[in-house]
Amino acid sequence: MTLQTLYDQLLELRIPAFRQALQEQQANPRFTELAFEDRLSLLVDHECTQRRENRIRRNLHTAAFPTSATLEELDLSPG
Fold first, then answer.
1. How far is the C-alpha of 17 from the C-alpha of 77, rounded, in Å?
2. With DSSP H G I counted as helix, E B as strand and the rest as coil, what are the percentages for the chain, rounded to 5?
3. Distance between CA 20 and CA 25 in Å, rounded?
4. Is the N or the C terminus of the chain less surrounded, counting Cβ atoms within 10 Å?
């Protein structure tokens, strides 16, 4: 199986963050020192994190809040 076939299959499976992380691992020689399970764990973790961030971003967009705010902008002083 060629790498391009693998990348295409990962996109077909709808795991693009996994594909991106795999490409990054292949470009960086320090990952070759890791065991298979460790590399796989990093790939799966990257996909899960990306999905979680996408879900949060999508929910915030769907909520359509009238203004955006951060915790730093809250005034919690008495009075």
1. 42
2. 75, 0, 25
3. 9
4. C
Residue 49 C-alpha from the chain's centroid: 4
Work out the number of other CB atoms within 10 angstroms of the CB of residue 79.
Answer: 3
**What burial letters (b/e) apply to 28-64, b meaning 16+ CB within 10 Å?**
eeeeeeeeeeebeebbeebbeebeeeeeeeeeeeeee
Average pLDDT per block of 10 residues along the chain, 79 residues long: 93 95 95 95 96 95 85 83
> What's residue 43's pLDDT?
96
